# Entry
Amino acid sequence: MFKPGYIFEKIIYRLLLVSGWKRDVVQANLNFVHSNPSKVIYTKEYKQIISNLSRHVSEILFDFGSFKRLSQDFSSYPFKQNLITYKLADGSEPVLDKMRKGGIFLTAHYGNYEAIGPWLCRLDIPLKASYIPLKPAVLNRIVENRIRSVDKVNYSVNAKNPREFLRLLDEKKLFCLLMDQDSRIESAATSTFLGKKVHVNPLPDFLLRHRPETPVFICWLEETASEKILHATEITPTGNSVNEAFNHWLEKRIAEKPALWYGWTHRRFYSCNPEIYSKLE
# Structure
């Protein structure tokens, strides 16, 4: 059977590999966080990252509709569709049920993180995901209308100031934010990630200071050849800060499957340690 998604995946993998896309950034990051960088097999790690990324991009472009047709009822899971079994991880159902009442949802560039959005929407969770509009505008419209939209309802939001985020929480929406990016704004908070000093987005801590009773959740997607498993957990802030708990969660995921974290392709440590990328300029 002809599968355009599979063909696209192999083509994009080869193009990225041959072009060396982000190879130097990945190597700089791995070299920085490992205590004995001479033992790091850069080529193997890089190839696996590119392979995973190509597969997930292909799924978004060619098979994203599967997540938009999942059952709304918890009792329907495990749910089978197109030879894939979709499951809710043990202990996740009560957390997902609580997410229906709103809160803060933190996630990372880990695995097929984009697929979590439509799945949560199908579970009647009032998701609103923060994002920066893409350019050109036509690309942004495609992403909004064809990817980040479920049942003709767009779940992305381009909130421009803290009051808008607080309004979303007051309206009992589940506000989603990617939290593994280097924050280069003046008000960035400082934390420790993979044993290194980093700057993080101060927005979650700001929201908790003003809405201290707001629950905070983390979700991630586990995948095998025949299963997709949605994990959901609630985390407890430490001193009105979620940074320690979130970083601990992500470090655990990276330790399990390092090539699923696409943050390796980002200049994650730039604001605190710009010198590690100096040769890439």
